[in-house]
Amino acid sequence: LGQPIIADELLIKPENSLVHQSYDAEEMSEPLNGDGFGLGWYAHGLSERPGLFRSITPAWNNNNLIYNASLMQTDCLFAHIRAASEGGVSESNTHPFHYDRFLMMHNGGIPQFRRIKRKLLSLLSDELFLWIQGQTDSEHVFALLMQNADEMRGDGPPLTTEQIQVCFQKTFDTVQQLKEDAGIGDEVSTFNMMVTDGHRIVGTRYSSMPEKEYRTLYYSSGSRFETVDGESRMVNDTEQNGSVLIVSEKLNNHDEDWTPIPSNHFVSVQQDLNVRLVPMSNS
Predict the structure, then answer these.
(1) To the nearest 10°, the Cα dihedral for 260, 263, 264, 266?
(2) Of 1, 29, 85, 150, which sits with the fewest C-beta atoms within 10 Å of its C-beta?
């Protein structure tokens, strides 16, 4: 989020770019993420509805991605590579997911999701029940989050970041209660989940048992992220920050560029690019 960036500066050029992570992720027990990829971006001069490009081919082997990444420029970009767990390999199951003007992507999962799927669906409005197209736990949890947000907003103004965080917490608490009702409360759910409306990002690094399992998450802020002579860095050459990246894995070997997001925390990036970290509950 921030100063417009050409997509290949994140997806292709860095040492540990997202395309590289699709076949050799460095901070996961399973390095392969070859079950599709997706991009979501905003062109605010044209529409508040995001663009969306999803494919079931691996990111490393998609000529459309490789060709077009150097021709796409945006001030808000979501990009995701998938290792399928819940749901087959299909475009409908590929992140990011899109609802109204929002995009969502997720790393993590709900073990034995089929045990709570029907109960979760029964909590949804007709609109959100019918909106779901795929089988992933990710899309179903996003639907529950959007329902909680719709109910909180009503006919009022857009939700504040704090209100969206309340919706996240309510969503995860509901999932945990459904798991407990199904006798699988001790199974660990993980939600590194990001949502954007194109102007701000709100997300979580969350585990229902952080002492047992969690996924990595970092952020980097500065003037701009760029690659010069084959080296990618977050550049700081002005007093005011111009870009914020939130990533599952560091894109380069410069640890000083990246701040780990603590386990079970909200992370938000406001329109002024201020980054806030707030603890959340795992109860």
Answers:
(1) 0
(2) 29
